[in-house]
Amino acid sequence: MQAEQARPVAVVTGAASGFGRAIAQRLAREGYWVGLIDINQAGATETWQSLGGEGHGAVVRADVSDEAQMQAAFRTIADQRGRLDVLVNNAALPQRPTRVESLSAAEWDRLMAVNVRGVFLGMKFAVPLMKQQRRGSIINISSVAALRPRPGLNAYCASKAAVIGLTKAVALELASDGIRVNCIAPGPADTPMLPGFMADPESETGRQVFVESVPLGRFIRPEEIAAAVAYLASGDAAAVTGAVLNVDGGRHV
Ligand SMILES: NC(=O)c1ccc[n+]([C@@H]2O[C@H](COP(=O)([O-])OP(=O)(O)OC[C@H]3O[C@@H](n4cnc5c(N)ncnc54)[C@H](O)[C@@H]3O)[C@@H](O)[C@H]2O)c1
């Protein structure tokens, strides 16, 4: 039981698909017990099964933009495990290309609520647990879209730029508590999110535009984002905080 309590604990939001699933799988292989937060319970349960099920993690259904649900999710995990070592704020919504004058305030608010408020709430409820241990690693998933915007992705690009600003501000704030805060800016990846950025999700040309924007000439693989998370979570990154790690095949250059 003592060994079990010493096992490190990670929480991954948006763990039902794409990067979140690959991140959860990698952290489980690194020896973490993984809390899987998502609104998609069925998808998160599939991820949980892929980790080996019971004993390797738990699914906690929550909308990351909802304060009460996030507070309850972190309380559930703290009650079960009594510690938290790593938080990966990964859940987000894409945006269909929309000119700024046509974007509704409701669409703007929903995107900001999930992509920015969700990251804030994750940190709000994780940090007190990490402070008890005087150590922890928080990894926020931004996007190359924050650095190299595309026309029509106004709210999405703004939300991902906000994640970078928030990461840097909180990194400074928590440095003296032994908690590191970094972010990853992925390039385009062929996950279920990708069609959400296309004017015509059915068209092959839409996908080609994304591939051709990457100097390495290919999509980023979820496993490559998971490897960056594993690095930032590890002791190898003990001197790294407030950083933006571009994993984008050179797209940001
Ligand atoms: N796919 C890409 O090309 C790309 C590129 C750069 C950055 N990103 C970022 O990577 C992260 C993961 O994206 P992905 O491509 O794996 O997308 P995805 O759509 O496959 O996964 C996103 C997950 O977030 C969950 N989610 C959405 N809204 C939620 C909410 N309100 N509460 C809880 N969970 C919610 C979804 O159910 C889903 O499981 C996101 O932050 C995204 O912005 C993706």
Précis, in short:
The protein is of the alpha/beta class and 253 residues long. It has a single domain, classed as Rossmann fold, CATH 3.40.50.720.
Structural summary, described in words:
This protein has eight helices and seven strands, in the order H-E-H-E-H-E-H-E-H-E-H-E-H-H-E. It has one domain (2-245): Rossmann fold (3-Layer(aba) Sandwich), CATH 3.40.50. The protein has a seven-stranded parallel sheet, sandwiched between helices. Helix 3 (41-51) links the parallel strand 2 (33-38) and strand 3 (57-61). It has helices at 2-6, 18-29, 41-51, 67-81, 105-133, 154-174, 204-212, 222-233; strands at residues 9-13, 33-38, 57-61, 86-89, 136-141, 179-186, 244-247. The mean pLDDT is 96. It is globular. Nicotinamide-adenine-dinucleotide is lined by residues 13-14, 16-20, 38-40, 43, 63-65, 90-93, 114, 141, 143, 186, 188-189, 191-194.
What's the helix and strand layout?
Layout: H1 2-6, E1 9-13, H2 18-29, E2 33-38, H3 41-51, E3 57-61, H4 67-81, E4 86-89, H5 105-133, E5 136-141, H6 154-174, E6 179-186, H7 204-212, H8 222-233, E7 244-247
Bound molecules: nicotinamide-adenine-dinucleotide.
